[in-house]
Task: structure prediction
Amino acid sequence: MSATVADTHAEHEHHGPVAGWRRWLYATNHKDIGTMYLILSLIMFFVGGVMALIIRTELFSPGLQFVNPAFFNQMTTMHALIMVFGAVMPAFVGLANWMVPLMIGAPDMALPRMNNWSFWILPVAFAMLASTLFMPGGAPASGWTMYPPLVLQTGDAFPFLIFSVHLLGISSIMGAINIIVTIVNMRAPDMSLLKMPMFVWTWLITAYLLLAVMPVLAGAVTMLLTDQFFGTSFFLAAGGGDPVMFQHIFWFFGHPEVYIMILPAFGVVSEIIPTFSRKPLFGHDSMVYAASSIAFLSFIVWAHHMFTTGMPLTGQLFFMFATMLIAVPTGVKVFNWTATMWRGAMSFETPMLFALAFLFLFTIGGFSGLMLAIVPADIQYHDSYFVVAHFHYVLVPGSVFAVMAAVYYWMPKWTGHYYDERMGKLHFWLSTIFVNVTFFPMHFLGLAGMPRRIPDYSTQFADFNSIASIGAIGFGLSQLLFAYNVIQCVRKKGSTATDAVWDQPQGLEWTVPSPAPYHTFETPPTSSVKTTFS
Amino acid sequence: MIRKLCLAALVLLGSTGANADWALNMPKGVTTLSAETYAIHMMVFWWCVAIAVIVFGVMIYSLIRHRKAAGAVPAKFSHSMTAEIIWTTIPIVILLIMTVPSAELLIKLEDSRDPDITVVTTAYQWRWHYAYQGEDVEFFSSLSRTSAAARRKGSGIDPETVDNYLLDVDRPLVVPKGAKVRFLLTSNDVVHAWWVPELSIKKDAIPGFMNETWFKAEVAGVYRGQCAELCGMDHGYMPIVVEVVEPEAYQAWLVNEKDRVAQVAVADGEIR
Amino acid sequence: MSHAEEKYYVPHGSHWPIVGSAGLLFLMVGVSVWLNGGDTGFWVMLAGFAIIIFMLVGWFGEVIGESESGRFNTQVGMSFRMGMFWFIFSEVMFFSAFFGALFYARNMAIPWLGGESNNFFTNLMLWDGFESTWPTNGPGNIGGDFEPMGPFGLPLINTVLLLSSSVTLTIAHHALLKGHRSLVKVFLGATFVLGFIFVFLQAEEYIEAYQHMNLTLGSGIYGSTFFMLTGFHGMHVTIGAIMLTIIWFRVLKGHFTPDKHFAFEAVAWYCHFVDVVWVALYVFVYWM
Ligand code: HEA
Ligand code: HEA
Ligand code: CUA
Ligand SMILES: [Cu+2]
Result:
């Protein structure tokens, strides 16, 4: 017994990372795993982005120039799956890995080995998904929503699609369990739940959403698999099933899924705005309640994606009302951020700029969401580019901008060096201008009657499509700057960061050295709540 | 960004006209309910603009006045019950204002009872089949030959030179003006959706189920739409054309069609 | 209290997860290829299974070793417990998807096919003559006439078996808490034996269904929901019984103390969860 004690002791005190590939393959350190998540996410963002550019290039002008319709649909499907499951979700899990233990004063994640597995399942899943591009029949082409019976027409890719979704689900579930257990069980002794930073709070709520809906998605695709290969009739009317039943089950997952992609973003913004306003977050507790209400409501609004499926009238009315209600807690968040900035002393470093763009542009996306919730109007908007505009506003200048804000905000803590502020600002302005050039015209296209998921369109839609395509290429190229900034910072090209990094930010993560040592808080910090503002 | 939004709003305002090539807004449409749909859309839009002006206004004011560079000293406050109650209540009220007319319109949209004409529409990959209930008229409607030739990759045909590129069919649906037309929609294979913006209806065609929807067109004319649910490779190539004609013209068309359909059906069978 | 007790145990480096990922890769690719009609897929799948079993044995072995050598403090134990609890919650949600399908089919899809709600024409024009009933294999009589599985006979026996296994498990748990190890051995042993008998009888039930009742996975929505729900449940009973066997051997080896027995608790929770699912199944699938 005593030998073991000495053993653990020695190992903990003196070991930094092991050298070579083992450090990454066998990683149990939350910072290493967080880094791997973030790198994977960046790669996937570029891969998904290239697919988006293929879509936009084909749509640059009417007529079919570059790809065949079948391949176009494959690109739409893969773009969405890769962006959602490969870029945005892993980015937030990576941030959680890096920051949650630092923010709550924990030595690591609660279940470090499982943490490794959550990550290393992802490359397997994406390898399977990507391999479908080279299969007879091509990649899945039924949209990321995988509606039957169309999805059952997928070629050899079909089981690969299903199983990669299973793997992504397993990974997310394990990740979510780890985050919940870490937050609930590993906080510094004096950090009560309501004292937790907002990023930790939003992630706690997100983790519950993940746990509740990823298994449901797994169940849904399992039913697709058995309908295809084992003769079941879940989605076959002749057998007493219903193709629309899949849509219900999918969106029971799918709607909470979109909040899974935005709640951590809310958390990030709630960290950044106070720091650069030099003022505590306004209404911390009501922010917690608002995020919880959003999460709760997200379970009872799913069928707003299905207003044209012929649901009974009462169903449509219920889902309309429930959906509209989400504007209330979301409004509370927006107003509280505004109140945080109000009478602050703001400065506009890159993270703050991205957070501000988030504030404005996410709200615009939220407004179009509200419009979509109005059933009679949605009957017109549905499956048009108006919807595409809506969700890219909440996802790109929403989730993706929040990830970028977070990276700029915490990178000096990770690497010990600042990024190049001038380059950061350049990246910000180019991104913000081009993101609007890309996605704003899509509102007009949708209202004028352009359906989504089409490789070619009538000539009346030509102008706005060209503008959107130019914007997309501009936005894509601007992201090379992002990669450049990150690489330069990792290569320690910038000036050395102080421990606090910014001007008196709040939170435990700023009390450890920059770069954060390999092991932090091996013994819990005595006073976890650092309030520098008041 | 705010400038962008205002600009967009202005453009939207000025665009309610009929310039089809630069259409920015939802069409007002030609049915009894499409104008109401348009009105709801605009009402919600203007509420959003109003909220945006206020919220973004406050933000921008704050961004300008409360800058560190402008010498601002941070205040210390971090909560206010009153403020929070106000900004939870006002949105609820606004939402309630929006729901009432929306629900009323929805109830009307769902009421497809007592139609004058019923068209049974069956979706196929990738064309539509229409059958006039009670009349002996039924036919397939698919992408017109000119569009079909131009749409191929490397066809060498400039889409600009094709009339109604991708929005033209070989055989349009013909309905009389002022009649309540009910659609019974189903599908033969995968899910499709029947959408004509000017008629303000969109409804999914689901295999094994029969969906209902209806319209009553008040203005004669040709209205175009497209399939609005991803249905495979040629989802982008299954347009819809509805010709709304005077009732007498409709009757004449029906008579004419009854013979033609018989012949065409034979020809169709041979092609397939 | 020693120093290590206060510190949270953070393992440094483990190759088991990556082995697990390799196993999953082989397994999933293997099944996919096999389903697509490639015979090699079957062997790849078996290889994947083998790797995963190797991983499970190795990984759990390592954790058991650490536990027995006293590296885990109570906080680590708490992490394991919470992790298990939320894992079970995710399992509950997985089953919900299938229960949801059952409820949706019975309360929505089938009545609609029978012409209810806004589906008058669905019935009239597409499925004329179909009446909304349960059990059903749908208006297309998919899979041909079949006999539904009643609640008595084997299912009832199985209910009794599973509920008694719940009782024996609880007795074993209490005995462990009080330190009566011989009692633990007997009742834990009884529990997994009951579990395996359950699985055996369910196999009998399936054979009966396939051979004499023409009730198969292909028997429309009834067959689909019946076999998917009971099948996934049976799979869970099997896993539970195997885990019970493993901890039984650990008890024989002298593992677990009245205050440190996470693995025992985890398996117990899992089995209770599986029992609860069965009760729901018995009520909604066999009975109502
Ligand atoms: C991050 C992702 C994200 C987020 C946050 C949202 C947020 C919302 N979404 Fe969106 N949505 C998607 C991602 C997202 N959505 C995606 C991916 C799809 C398409 C999927 C597919 O088909 O492929 C989609 C589709 C979609 C539809 C279906 C459209 C269709 O297919 O016909 C609907 C319909 O109701 C909808 C509604 C909403 C609403 C009401 C919100 C609300 O949460 C927004 C709330 C926010 C605000 C309203 C702004 C701030 C509030 C205030 C300033 C307060 C005052 C305001 C008022 C009182 C109005 N969304
Ligand atoms: C988080 C999710 C996310 C993100 C980040 C994005 C980002 C982008 N999306 Fe996408 N998108 C979805 C989620 C997302 N999307 C979903 C869910 C759908 C629905 C799918 C469906 O219908 O099933 C969809 C569908 C969709 C469509 C509709 C397709 C259709 O209906 O047929 C379009 C069309 O323009 C589009 C465009 C873009 C563009 C231009 C970006 C850009 O923001 C991407 C920018 C990034 C890059 C461009 C990569 C980085 C740069 C380089 C690699 C450098 C090289 C650059 C050059 C050489 C120029 N997306
Ligand atoms: Cu038919 Cu899309
Ligand atoms: Cu939604």
Q: What stands out?
A: Residues 277 and 344 of chain A are 5 Å apart (CA to CA). Residues 1-14 of chain A have pLDDT under 50 and may be disordered.
